[in-house]
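To fix ideas, we reproduce below one chain and its tokenised fold.
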Amino acid sequence: MRIGLYPGTFDPLTLGHRDIITRAAQLVDRLVIGVAINRDKGPLFTLEERVAMIEAEVMDLRERTGVDIVAHPFENLLIDCARDVGASIIIRGLRAVTDFEYEFQMVGMNRAMDDSIETVFLMAEARHQAIASKLVKEIARLGGDVSKFVSPPIREALLAKYD
């Protein structure tokens, strides 16, 4: 069984994230969405809210594809999380060259710790490449329309946070 790990903070899950999840599901039998507990980032949504949003957002994909897709909170090293869930592949999304520079360093460190776990990069579709959770939160906070960047339920959750 091929198990992939797609890690991130997902604060909130965007259409760009969903695009990567959809395409990653074609590569593996089980896709674990690693929800990082990153206290330094000070997420807008609680861990429980982020996990629930992910589970709700992937339900239809899980049913359509038959791929086992689960959300898995983690606070340890990414490579340790990959081992914990039995992943042989770490899936990372890329948006721009700056993402690649950071990811390139991360791959080197992860391979030094465990060279049996491969990293695969997926580019979001062009229409989703500029989407960043940080910017989506800023737009929502300032009263802008985020409907082009997130699903309707997540849009509602954002509006409720900034009400």
In short: The helical segments are 15-24, 47-65, 78-85, 97-113, 133-141, 152-161.
